Amino acid sequence: MNKLFARQLEKAKTAAGETDLDALRELIVTAYEQSDRDRRRTDRSISLMVEELDQLNRSLERQVADRTATLREREAQLQEQNIRIDAALNNMSQGLAMFDSSARMVICSKPYMTMYGLPPDLIKPGITVSELLRYRLKTGTFAGDPDAYTETLLASTAKGYAVSNIVELPDGRTILVLNHPMANGGWVATHEDITERRRAEKKIAHMARHDSLTDLPNRVLFQERLSEALVDVHRGKRLAVLYLDLDHFKGVNDTLGHLIGDELLKVVAGRLRQCLRDTDTVARFGGDEFAIIQAAAENPRDTAALAARICQELSAPYELTGHAVMVDVSIGIAIAPGDGTEPVELIKNADMALYGAKADGRGTYRFFEPAMDARMKSRRALDLTLRKALAEGQFELHYQPLLNLTDNRITCCEALVRWNHPERGLIQPAEFIPAAEELGLIVPLGEWVMRKACADAATWPDDIKVAVNLSPIQVMSANLMPVVIGALAAAGLPASRLELEITESVLMQNTDATLAALHRLRELGVKISMDDFGTGYSSLSYLRKFPFDKLKIDRCFISGLAEGDDSLAIVRAVTSMARSLGMITTAEGVETEQQLEHVRALGCTEVQGYFISHPKTLEEISRMLVSYSPKQAKTA
Ligand code: C2E
Ligand code: MG
Ligand code: MG
User: Fold this and answer.
1) Which residue lies with its CA nearest to atom 7 of ligand 1?
2) CATH class (in words) of the domain with range 95-198
3) Using a 6 Å cutoff on CB, does residue 428 contact ligand 1?
4) Residue 515: per-residue pLDDT
């Protein structure tokens, strides 16, 4: 200011060197005004600056607040995520551990620690895999060399390979370990306890190849073992396949029940195992069928000895929950390579030999012979021929009358089937009924007989019954009842005019179920006769088991009457017992007048035989039924 004032004083000086006060005042006023203007300008720019700073400040504050909020949000999200990851890691059944590129632990889950019983104070981030494994080695949850294990692991993860191992722990657990490499050179390991899964898988695999009742190999495993064993046969060795079937097992099952049947099969399996060497295989094919591979059966005599031993062992009595049971076994044998070199072929041939053993009387064994194959083929051919015969209507029924001895009247005609063969002419039932029974064809054939016999009988006088023979298989078949009802209904024949003839073998084979079926038939009003009595076990006890309407004494006793053997006593005993039980007694095969009088004297109430009439065609019998008079009996 002093400098300014000195300059103003200088300026206000006149030329004479005096101070022009007016000029000075003017100068000062101008200077003040200028200064005032400057100050005001400065003030304005300061306030502008303050305002700008203020704005800047506010915006910064806003930004900071925004960022803080975002960070907080992120932090919350991270926390949330961490909780979720923790929850996931610690609650999943697998254990998880993460390691860095120097094989140090980064993190691990609780299940991982629990799985191996690892203490939290030891298992901290930074612990090396080797240290960890050494601890596990000490506590028995690891078997092996920790360093070698680590090295292998590091080598494979370094190459970026995922490594999976199934580890059997010393304590019996099985753990599936998966090591996934990570980008930074470390890896993530998941450990899963698969002990139960493994056990279940093993069990399923076992079940698929074993029989659940006896735990013996089943057919699948048997065939596999046979295929393996046949490799040795191709190298010049021999083996034997034995096919076994228990005789009368069905009877045990039906009379004593399935539980006892099952128990029997288990004991049989045990006895079979005892008979074999470790290198042999015994399998159950189902039901009462078993099969054996006798390895290295160099000499057929050894196989025969084994078969004989099995027959002997299995026929020894069984003590099954209070029941003494006896069964026999039949065995068919095929030897490789002679009888085949393929599993299916050997089993088939052994089965065929078994069939031969059964036909030879059961309880025995047979080696396969090519002739058996030929017999089987001819059976198959017969099967086809019989089916064709049935389809083409080549069967016909003949009828043989039964004469009541009280009033000498025909009471009933027995239907006897014949096969009218296009080339061979009439074939008797003895030639084809056994085959039809074996082939199962007796069921449709029997149904045809039943329908035809009922339809024919419906054309006869009302007081004449018709008798139809039933095979055991038919009696056991579930469709017997519907067949009988259907045949009666279709013919319009009252049930009381139908008699069904069964043989003793029916009662021997299947007591409970058979008796139930027979009772149901009898409730319908159908009569039941015991046919060929005396040819089976001739057990009078059968007569008490079921209230038969009629007892037909087999013709061998009638022909024996003249020879003075036991027949007389037997026929007398049987007739008197039958009479006391209210049954009709029919003498079969009466061929002479003498026999007729004899059986009449012995108390038989009915006769059937050539002396009365041979079996006749429907036309012939129909005529006879109208014209028959007792006198004719003697001349027939
Ligand atoms: P079966 O039921 O005992 O029938 C009586 C058999 O004895 C008949 O033989 C008959 O011709 C014969 N016969 C009758 N009287 C005399 C006689 O005085 N002397 C002699 N020596 N024989 C006599 P066929 O017709 O050959 O029948 C044999 C067996 O075939 C029958 O014996 C029966 O068990 C069975 N059969 C016949 N037809 C059928 C059928 O439709 N179904 C079933 N399942 N079996 C049948
Ligand atoms: Mg008969
Ligand atoms: Mg008979």
Assistant:
1) 589
2) alpha beta
3) yes
4) 86
CATH of 213-370, one of 3.30.70.270, 3.90.1150.10, 3.30.1240.10, 3.40.630.10: 3.30.70.270
Residue closest to 446 by CA, chosen among 416, 470, 413, 467: 470
Query: Which residue is closest in CA terms to ligand 1's atom 38?
Result: 416
Task: For residue range 17-70, list pLDDT tens digits in order.
Answer: 888 888 889 988 988 898 889 899 988 988 898 899 899 999 999 999 999 999
Quick: pLDDT tens for 182-234: 888 889 999 999 999 999 999 999 999 999 999 999 999 999 999 999 999 98
* 533 closest CA partner among 602, 587, 601, 470: 587
Give the bridge partners for 501, in sequence order.
469, 529
CA dist 181 and 158 (Å) reads: 7
Look at residue 546 in the predicted model and tell me its pLDDT.
Answer: 86
Q: How far apart, in Å, are the Cα atoms of 298 and each of 77, 304, 345, 437?
A: 80, 12, 20, 39
Protein residues within 5 Å, CB atom, of ion ligand 3: 531-532, 588
Per CATH, which fold does 400-414+443-634 belong to? Answer: TIM Barrel (3.20.20)
Q: Please tell me whether residue 426 adopts helix, strand or coil conformation.
A: strand
Torsion over CA: 604, 596, 555, 501 (sign): negative
510 vs 157, higher pLDDT = 157
Give the C-alpha separation, 331 to 425, whole Å.
Answer: 39
> How far, CA to CA in Å, does 391 sit from each of 69, 445, 448?
95, 10, 10
Please give the pLDDT value at position 630. 58
User: In whole angstroms, what is the distance from residue 535 CA to residue 532 CA?
Assistant: 6
539 CB less than 6 Å from ligand 1? no
Tens of pLDDT, residue by residue over 316-337, are 999 988 888 889 999 999 999 9
